[in-house]
Amino acid sequence: MRFGGLQRFSLCDYPGKMAAVVFTQGCNFRCPFCHNGALLPSRNPEQEIGEADILAFLHKRRGLLEGVVITGGEPTLHPDLADFCRTVRDMGFLVKLDTNGSRPRALEYLLADNLVDFIAMDVKATPERYHILAGVPVEPARIMSSIGIISRAGIPAMFRTTWVDGLHRPEERELIPAMLPPSMQHVFQPFRPENALRPDLCGSFSTNS
Q1: Chain-centre distance for alpha carbon 35
Q2: Among 29, 31, 70, 206, which lies 20 to 30 A Cα-Cα from 40?
Q3: Does this model's pTM top 0.70?
């Protein structure tokens, strides 16, 4: 695994749990509103943190932290994600995965082996406008497949949308939640403009109200 960041303690990234947050390098999306631009390249040696260092830190926090959040970037791009999840769970931690939902087969594999305890998936936009919010061509069928896989997984899950005025259309307030089964939790979260990937969005403002 290639990591580009570590947050040693968080009370808000894993609902109801004290957790550490690890950030993987590399993402297949280029969302114009992304505020983690340094994590987008598949390798950024200046920010890279070794997996051994991550595991050494977690070993010291056994019994103190409850969970580990794996975010990015896009964690499912890493072929050794399952091995890392297994190691973390064997250390006694719960695992929460943040994903963009672009790789449904990877999610199926992780869930089949019971390697994830909580999944949060970003739902960027309605299918016909997904490429605009993702910044790259996207197969909407993959997104919908991931929604279905997560919804049927039988573990805690949530879906979230970063709302960006000027990129989203007003009707998407209703259309995006309608993409999900009624029983699934969905939240709109605020756009953080300070370090947006697209320069013209920096300094703009959006609310989730």
Answers
A1: 13
A2: 206
A3: yes
Torsional sign, CA 191, 193, 196, 201: positive
Confidence of residue 208 (pLDDT cuts 50, 70, 90): very low
* Interatomic CA distance for residues 84 and 82, integer angstroms: 5
Closest CA to 107 of 143, 72, 54: 143
Answer whether 196's CB lies under 8 Å from 33's CB. Answer: yes
Domain residue limits, the chain:
3-201
pLDDT in tens, 121-132: 999 999 999 999
Mean pLDDT for the stretch of residues 59-79: 97
Question: For strand 185-190 and strand 157-163, is the pairing parallel, antiparallel, or unpaired?
Answer: parallel
Q: Say which CATH topology domain 3-201 has.
A: TIM Barrel (3.20.20)
Q: Indicate whether 204 pLDDT > 60.
A: no
Task: Name which of 188, 164, 193, 171 is nearest 126 in CA terms.
Answer: 171
Closest to 17 (Cα-Cα) out of 185, 181, 156: 156
Q: What is the DSSP letter of 142?
A: H
Q: At what angle do helices 81-90 and 51-60 cross, to 10 degrees?
A: 20
